[in-house]
Amino acid sequence: MGIAGGLFLAQQSTGSTALAYFGPQFFELLVGAGDRTLLLTGIFGAIKVVACLIFVVFLSDRFGRRPLLGGGAAFMAVCMIATAVVVKTYPQPEDGTVTSSGMATVALIYLDIIAYNFSWGPLPWPCASEIFPTRIREPGVAFGVGSQWLFNFVWSFSTPYIQQSLGWGTFLLFGLLDVVIVGFTYFCLKETAGKSLEEINGMFDRVDPDAEHGWKDLNCDAASHVSAERHQDAQIDAESVSKHRTAHVESTAGQS
Predict the structure, then answer these.
(1) Helix (H, G, I), strand (E, B) or coil at 163
(2) 26 to each of 16, 190, 249, how far by Cα in Å?
(3) Which superfamily is assigned to 1-204 in CATH?
(4) What is the pLDDT of residues 54-83, one digit of tens each?
(5) How far is 183 from 189, CA to CA, in rounded Å?
(6) Which of 37, 107, 155, 162 is the most exposed, having the fewest neighbouring CB atoms within 10 Å of its CB?
(7) Which is higher by pLDDT, 163 or 193?
(8) What is the pTM of this model?
């Protein structure tokens, strides 16, 4: 459950959802106010659709889950941190002139959303359905989907306040969160691509194979010991019966 919730928390913390919801406000930080922010937001949405289509058709089954998730988060971190540095170093002129630095940051945002749709946009959904054993898959996936909408609400509600308070620092915040997501991918996620459900269940099984083997050996030894004791008892009983019969025969012969 924790991994499923973590997947969707990471998905919503990349900053891409905030960019999708508040694109004009973010582009205003990059190129100034005006109708061009709406145009840039429209291009942003079109790039999302095309990138997701390319991923589904050409990339979804060619690479593992962890490389795409880790690489995507790392690339997004670079894009976000670079955007924050450029916006801080070369602020937008007050007269609304579009500068080369402003267009560079727009390009970085577009690259960021491409990386998102190659990784954290689509992949948490199949990952969340693959990590649960069959007996709890339905409630597990339901928990993951519910957490996705919860974190979506949290970020969509808080982003305007964060942007108003931090300004260019909002990009830095998302960049640092992307760095944390790289660590989450490396330490918490296991590769599930191309594996059967039985193999995946074994990956998340908490029983140590060596310990399990040891218990099996112990059980075999105990069973062998019990069997030997029973065999010995049976031999003793057989000898006792044989002696009793011999004594009975001798007694009968003496009486005769």
Answers:
(1) helix
(2) 11, 34, 109
(3) MFS general substrate transporter like domains (1.20.1250.20)
(4) 999 988 878 889 999 999 999 999 999 999
(5) 10
(6) 107
(7) 163
(8) 0.77
